[in-house]
Amino acid sequence: MTADPSHRLAAAQKLKAVMARHFMELDEAARTRSKKIAWCTSVGPAELALAADFLVYYPENHAAILGANRTAAEYIPLANAAGFSPDICSYLTSDIGAYLKGETPLTRAYGIKNIPKPDLLLYNTNQCRDVYDWLSFYARRLKVPIIGINTPRSQAYPREDVVASCVSQLREIVPVLEKVSGRAFDIDRLREVLALSRECSQLWEAVLHAARTRPSPATFFDHCIHMGPAVVLRGTPEANAYYRILLEELKERTDRALGAVPEERHRLYWDGMPVWGKLRFMSETLSGLHSSVVASTYCNSWVFSDFDPRHPFRSMAKAYSSIFISQDDNYKENYIAAKTQQFGVEGIIYHDARTCPHNTNTRYGMPNRLGERLKMPYLIINGDLNDLRCFSEEQTLTNLEAFVEQLEESSA
Ligand code: SF4
Predict the structure, then answer these.
(1) Cα(111)–Cα(191) distance, integer angstroms
(2) Which atom of ligand 1 lies closest to the CA of 273?
(3) Has residue 5 got a pLDDT over 70?
(4) What is this structure's pTM?
């Protein structure tokens, strides 16, 4: 099954250039020591580092590249041999394994020999503990300072005491940034960066919202590719310029009623992590079944509506401590229910990612509860973000076909 090329987004070429520039800039800074480099977790306090004039590198993005180009399997065993369990985050094990082997996909993509060495490691446990253990490995190995925010998870609602604690922890990062960078922290620069991040978040949300039209001009699988700048370049003008271009293309598609899936018949929601090495397989299979995945929890994770440059610390604390993954199941169910309505969804696909229990919502009864509440069919796909030994194409194909048949019957 091959996707019709006319349905591919032309902005992908521009995206390639934007991402290439990001990595080349990091490489240049690492080789010439012209700028300090911070490594940051994907929903960590990147804005602080950018405001202190660091370049920011995201190990999760590097790990997702290892997943997408299906090389993770070569590296996971090396991390396992170093004592990291095969049951923990396969982003972590593939990234650490690649480091232990002295390899990076950036070499093949951009001619970059090594990942950029950090001067500082920044984390936020709002998504899981694995990110802390992951960066701690590098802190020990590379003898680099590590600092971050310990955010509680399974919160029933955004709590004031949690926000206050995160504000204090964010403030504690500032003197460390000053020490490593050797320059005074500029609060006005933080306001500027936060304004750029907020704009990025708004533009990215507009990209996701474009999928509310029928047929949808893009799917979750497109979003997984085009979310790159929202993750690694938020807080910079480059990300915002890119999303303006992408939005124009989506608008043009919407005006022409050009859907990402030919003859879109079913609209679905995706919960959980992507299966990075099988994006194309999933996209083409669902496209062949005239089913468009129009919304997802995952891609929405980089919408930070609370950012407010007038209150930089407080608004960052609020935005980062109230992300979907850090809330409890009641909150998550209400969130997903609202999204299915907004996007006109008729079925939900849950990805049970073997090594990411934190971003898997199938294990405490949510699909049953939401299925009953919304009177909506659902499918649970067993797989993983990077470890493809946990994923069966045959099984998934059979399950998807049966699921779409069920949708056809209920809409007949
Ligand atoms: S949320 Fe899941 S995939 Fe992301 S770093 Fe944590 S364990 Fe890994």
Answers:
(1) 35
(2) 3
(3) no
(4) 0.96
Helix spans in 82-159 (H): 90-101, 105-110, 130-142
Q: Ligand 1 centre from 60 Cα, in Å?
A: 8
Q: What is the pLDDT of residues 367-403, one digit of tens each?
A: 999 999 999 999 999 999 999 999 999 999 999 999 9
Phi, psi of 317 (to 5 degrees): -60, -45
Q: What is the pLDDT of residue 297?
A: 95
The encoded tokens of residue 381 equal 């796909």
Task: Determine the atom of ligand 1 nearest the C-alpha atom of 134.
Answer: 5
Q: Identify the residue whose C-alpha is closest to ligand 1 atom 6.
A: 128
Ligand 1 atom nearest the C-alpha of 60 is 5
Q: What's the burial of 295, exposed, middle or buried (CB within 10 Å: 0-12/13-18/19+)?
A: buried
Mean pLDDT of 74-103: 98
Position 7 scores a pLDDT of 67
* Cβ contact 152:325 at 8 Å: no
User: What spacing in Å lies between the alpha carbon of 127 and ligand 1's midpoint?
Assistant: 7
Model confidence at 3, in pLDDT bands (50, 70, 90)?
very low
Q: Is the pLDDT of residue 1 over 50?
A: no
Task: List the one residue out of 376, 110, 143, 368 whose CA is nearest residue 269.
Answer: 376
pLDDT over 70 (residue 247): yes
Comparing CA positions, the residue from 362, 406, 404 lying closest to residue 383 is 362
When the candidates are 3.40.50.11890, 3.30.1390.10, 1.10.260.40, 3.30.450.40, the CATH number that belongs to 30-185 is: 3.40.50.11890
- Token pair for 268: 């679905």
Measured from the Cα of 129, ligand 1's closest atom is 6
CATH architecture group of domain 190-411: 3-Layer(aba) Sandwich (3.40)
pLDDT digit string, tens, across residues 191-201: 999 999 999 99
- Ligand 1, atom 5: closest residue by C-alpha: 131
pLDDT at position 2: 37
Q: How far does the centroid of ligand 1 lie from the alpha carbon of residue 137, in Å?
A: 15
Phi, psi (degrees; rounded to nearest 5) at 293: -85, 105
Q: What residues flank ligand 1, with Cβ below 6 Å?
A: 60, 89, 91, 127-128, 130-131, 273, 356, 358-359, 385
Sequence spans of domains, the chain? 30-185, 190-411
Q: How are the residues of the chain apportioned to helix, strand and coil, as percentages rounded to the nearest 5?
A: 60, 10, 30
| 88 CA distance to ligand 1 middle (Å) | 9
